[in-house]
Write a structure and sequence with these properties.
single chain, alpha+beta, 18% strand
C-alpha cells in the first residue's frame, strides 16, 4: 500500500540467541566471489552459527544438528558476515543443501549483518535427504561492506540435520531476464461475464488487419463469431493488440472459450453467480485478518490460527501498549482490529478508508436502485457473530471500529480526543510469522490530524448505519466522531512523519484538507447540522476536480465525502451540482476505459502504474458505478461492470489478480501468515484476496531484480517477496468488495 518501508526480514531474535563465532580465515577470495570458503574443504572459517548449533565438517560439507522446539526461522542460523555488495550489480547466489528428515525448509538470504537487518534477497527451498543444488540471480539495491549470507534453519518442532556446501555469491554476472508465462494470447475475464452485460476481450497479435474470432461452448460447438478490431500498440503494455466484443451473445454457459489467431483463451462462464460468491469472499477476507482473537478453523477451514497480540508469550501484545519514547506517558488497550496488510501493523489511517468503503458497500445496497442489502444479512459471512440478528457486514466492520475507538487519546491527556496514527512492532518482522508468534515490542505512534479525521469520518458514517441495531454503540460512535472533529480543528497540522516507516508503514500525508472535507461530510449526513454543512460549503475541496487519473485512496479521501453526498439522501444546498460532478468524473473514467485496449478506467500519467494500481482501477470503477446509481444510464452500468474484467484476467499478464478466481490467479501475495510459498504448512491467501498489482516503482529487491525496465502492466510478479507489487491490504479488498457487490446486483 503506497507506504515507504525498509527491512522485510528482521533477525533481531538472533541477538537474544547469541552467536558462536568461528575463527576467521585469511581473505583470499576471487575478485567476483564474495563468499569466503564456501566449499568447506578443510575448515569452517569464517562461518558462524547461533549458540544453539554446533557445526561440524562432514564429507566436505558444513553440517549442524538443529534442535527442535524453536519458534522462528531465525532462532537457529548459519552465516557469514563482512560481505561486500555494489548497488546495481547482479549476483548469482548458489548453494547445495540437504536435510534429514525430508521436507525441512531452510531460509537462505543475503542481507544486512546488523540492525535493522534489512534483507535484499531470500529464498526458502524445501530440502530433501538426497540434497539439491540451488542458484538464483538478484540485483543489489545497496552499496555495503556489511552484508551477510545466512541460512535460517529454526522454526521446527522436531530436531533435524542441516548440511550445506558450495555456497557462492558471485558478482558481476549478467542479470537474469524474467519472462512471465502469459499463456494464450486471447485475454478474457477468466471468471464470468454477465448474461446481459458487456463482454470484451483482448487479442495480442502482430496482425495489422482484422481477424475472425469464434466463441465456443464447452462441448466445442460454436456459439458466436465475428471480427476483431485492430487497436495498434497498447501503451500500458507495449503490445500490439486487437479488441473483441461479443456482447450480443447473452446465453448463460460454463467453460466457454474464445478462439482467434490460432489461440484459445482460458475458460470462463457467462453467469452472475460467480459475483454472488465474490461479493461475500471479498468481505470474508477480513475475518482471517482479525487481531486479538483466535481464527476458528470450522469457519475458515485451513485458516485456523491462535489469537495474535493478546500478551501471551512470546507475543508482545496489544492489551497494554506504550507510546514510542517521548510521545506519551500512558499505555492503551488497543486489542482487536484488522491487521492492515501482510504485516502485523494496525492503522487508523487506511483503517478509515477501508471502513468507509465497506460501509459504503452496505449503504449503497440500502439506497441504490439495484441494491440488495439482504445479501450481507445475518449469517451471510460465517463469522462468530452470525446469528445475532445484525447484518454480518456490520458485525465484521465493528471489529475494526472498536479498535479505532481505542486509539483515541484519553480525556485528561495532552491532545485528548486525537487519534494515534498507528500501532505496530518496534522493527520489521520476518516471513513467515504467525501473529501469535510475533515476539516484537509493540508501540503506539504519535497522534496525527489525518488519523483523527479518519476516526471522525468513519465513526460518524457508522453511527447512522448501526443505529437500527445498537443505539448505544451508535451513540458512542457519534460522540467519538464529534470529539475527534473538535480535536482536529484544534490541532489541524499534526501531520505524520514520512520517515516513520520502521516496523510498519508510515502512511504519510502532507495535506489534511481532504480529510476535513470527508469528516465534515459524514458528520453532516448523520446529523444534518449547520456547522458541518458550512464546513462542506466553505471547503475548497467541495468544488475542486477530485477525480484525477489515479482516483482516490487512503491519502486522497475527498471522494469518500463527495460520493456519499451525491448518493446518500440529504438536503445539502447545491446537491444537484455535487451529483453532476460525480457524473462528470465518471465520464472521464469512461472515456479512459474506451481508449484503453484492455478496457480499464485507469491510465496514469506517463504510464507510471501506482502502488496498488488494481484498487485504483476498481475505485475509478466505483465512480462510474455511482454515476449509474445517480442517472440510471446504462453506459455507466456497462462501464463499471467491464472494469472488473481487468482484475479478473483481461490484462497483459493473463492473470486473475483475485486469489481463487479464474483458471490462473495470484496466490503468493506478500503476507506473514498466508505464506505457503515459504512454508508449505501455511495456506495461500483465502479466496477473494486482491493482489496490489503492477507498480512501476518496483521498490522491493525481488521486483528490482526481475522487473527492471518493465512497462506498465508488466511491473508485477506473483511472489511473496514482492511487497511493492504483490501485497494484500484491507483497503484494496474493500474496493473489490464494493465492485463485486455492484456487479452481482446487476446480474
Amino acid at each position: 500500500m503506497k507506504r515507504p518501508r525498509t527491512a522485510l526480514l528482521s533477525l533481531t531474535a538472533l541477538l537474544a540467541a547469541g552467536l558462536t563465532a568461528l575463527p576467521a580465515a585469511p581473505a583470499g577470495a576471487d575478485e567476483v566471489e564474495q563468499v569466503r570458503n564456501g566449499t568447506f574443504d578443510t575448515t569452517l572459517d569464517p562461518w558462524w552459527t547461533s549458540g544453539n548449533l554446533t557445526p561440524t565438517l562432514s564429507d566436505g560439507r558444513l553440517c549442524a544438528d538443529v534442535p527442535g522446539g524453536t519458534q522462528n526461522r531465525w532462532d537457529a542460523i548459519v552465516g557469514q558476515n563482512d560481505i561486500t555488495l555494489t548497488q546495481g550489480e547482479s549476483y548469482r547466489f548458489s548453494f547445495y543443501a540437504d536435510g534429514v528428515p525430508d521436507g525441512r525448509v531452510v531460509r537462505a538470504l543475503v542481507g544486512l549483518s546488523d540492525a535493522p537487518y534489512d534483507t535484499w534477497f531470500e529464498v526458502s527451498p524445501q530440502l530433501s535427504v538426497s540434497g539439491n543444488s540451488y542458484a538464483y540471480t538478484f540485483t543489489s539495491p545497496v552499496d555495503t561492506d556489511r552484508a551477510q549470507v545466512a541460512f535460517q534453519v529454526g522454526g521446527s518442532a522436531d530436531p533435524w540435520r542441516f548440511c550445506t556446501d558450495d555456497v557462492s555469491l558471485l558478482g558481476g554476472v549478467p542479470p537474469e531476464r524474467y519472462e512471465p508465462d502469459t499463456g494464450p494470447r486471447v485475454r478474457v475475464n477468466q471468471v464470468a461475464y454477465l448474461p446481459a452485460g458487456p463482454k470484451n476481450a483482448t487479442l495480442v497479435t502482430d496482425s495489422a488487419t482484422r481477424l475472425p474470432w469464434r466463441l465456443k461452448r464447452a462441448d466445442g460447438t460454436v456459439a458466436a463469431r465475428g471480427w476483431t478490431v485492430p487497436r495498434g500498440t497498447d501503451t500500458s503494455s507495449a503490445q500490439t493488440v486487437h479488441s473483441i466484443d461479443f456482447s450480443r451473445y447473452k446465453a448463460r454457459g460454463k467453460g466457454l472459450t474464445l478462439v482467434a489467431d490460432g489461440e484459445t483463451s482460458r475458460p470462463f462462464d457467462i453467469d452472475a453467480r460467480a459475483y454472488e460468491r465474490l461479493r461475500l469472499d471479498a468481505v470474508k477476507f477480513y475475518y482471517t485478518q482479525r487481531s486479538g482473537t483466535a481464527i476458528r478453523d470450522d469457519l475458515r477451514p485451513g485458516y485456523g490460527r491462535a489469537a495474535g497480540h493478546l500478551n501471551v508469550a512470546p507475543n508482545q501484545g496489544d492489551a497494554d501498549v506504550p507510546c514510542q519514547p517521548g510521545v506519551c506517558d500512558y499505555s492503551l488497550d488497543v486489542t482487536g482490529g484488522w491487521y492492515d496488510a501482510g504485516d502485523h501493523g494496525k492503522y487508523v489511517v487506511n483503517g478509515g478508508i477501508s471502513v468507509w468503503e465497506l460501509l459504503s458497500t452496505y449503504e449503497r445496497a440500502l439506497h441504490a436502485r439495484t441494491g440488495q442489502p439482504a445479501r450481507f444479512g445475518d449469517g451471510s459471512l460465517a463469522i462468530p457473530e452470525s446469528g445475532n440478528k445484525v447484518p454480518d457486514l456490520l458485525d465484521e466492520v465493528r471489529w475494526q471500529l472498536e479498535f479505532m475507538l481505542k486509539m483515541q487519546v484519553p480525556d485528561g491527556q495532552p491532545l485528548a480526543g486525537m487519534a494515534h496514527h498507528k500501532v505496530h512492532d518496534e522493527a520489521w518482522t520476518g516471513l513467515p510469522l504467525l501473529p501469535g508468534a510475533d515476539p516484537q515490542k509493540r508501540e503506539l505512534h504519535p497522534p496525527t490530524t489525518t488519523a483523527t479525521l479518519n476516526l471522525a469520518a468513519s465513526a460518524a458514517q457508522a453511527a447512522r448505519l448501526y443505529k437500527p441495531y445498537d443505539r448505544r454503540f451508535a451513540a458512542e460512535l457519534l460522540s467519538a466522531a464529534r470529539t475527534a472533529w473538535a480535536a482536529a480543528l484544534a490541532h489541524p497540522d499534526l501531520l505524520p512523519d514520512p520517515d516513520d516507516g520502521i516496523g510498519g508503514g508510515a502512511y504519510p500525508d502532507t495535506d489534511a484538507g481532504d480529510e476535513f472535507y470527508w469528516a465534515a461530510s459524514q458528520l453532516y449526513l448523520t446529523t444534518g447540522e449547520k456547522q458541518f454543512e458550512r464546513h462542506i460549503l466553505d471547503s475548497p475541496v467541495h468544488t475542486a476536480d477530485i477525480f484525477g487519473a489515479t482516483g482516490f485512496d487512503w491519502s486522497r479521501t475527498a471522494a469518500a465525502g463527495r460520493l456519499d453526498l451525491a448518493t446518500v439522501p440529504n438536503r445539502l444546498p447545491g446537491r444537484a451540482k455535487v451529483r453532476r460532478s460525480v457524473v462528470k468524473g465518471a465520464d472521464r473514467y469512461l472515456a479512459t476505459l474506451k481508449a484503453q485496449p484492455y478496457g480499464m478506467p485507469y491510465a496514469p500519467d506517463g504510464n507510471v502504474f501506482d502502488w496498488g494500481s488494481n484498487h485504483q482501477v476498481l475505485n475509478n470503477a466505483v465512480v462510474i458505478a455511482s454515476a449509474y446509481d445517480i442517472t440510471g444510464a446504462s453506459k455507466y452500468r456497462d462501464g463499471a461492470v467491464q472494469s472488473m474484467d481487468y482484475v479478473l484476467g483481461r490484462n497483459a499478464l493473463n492473470l486473475s489478480y483475485v486469489t481463487g478466481y479464474g483458471d490462473v490467479s495470484a496466490e503468493n501475495q506478500h503476507s506473514r501468515w498466508y505464506a505457503h510459498q515459504l512454508d508449505p504448512s501455511l495456506p495461500h491467501p483465502p479466496a477473494g484476496s486482491l493482489a496490489g498489482g503492477p507498480n512501476s516503482s518496483i521498490q522491493d529487491p525481488l521486483a528490482q531484480a526481475k522487473l527492471q525496465g518493465c512497462v506498465g502492466q508488466f511491473c508485477y510478479i506473483d511472489d511473496i517477496q514482492s511487497w511493492s507489487t504483490n501485497e494484500l491490504t484491507i483497503n484494496w479488498n474493500a474496493a473489490l468488495a464494493w465492485m463485486a457487490a455492484f456487479v452481482a446486483d446487476q446480474g
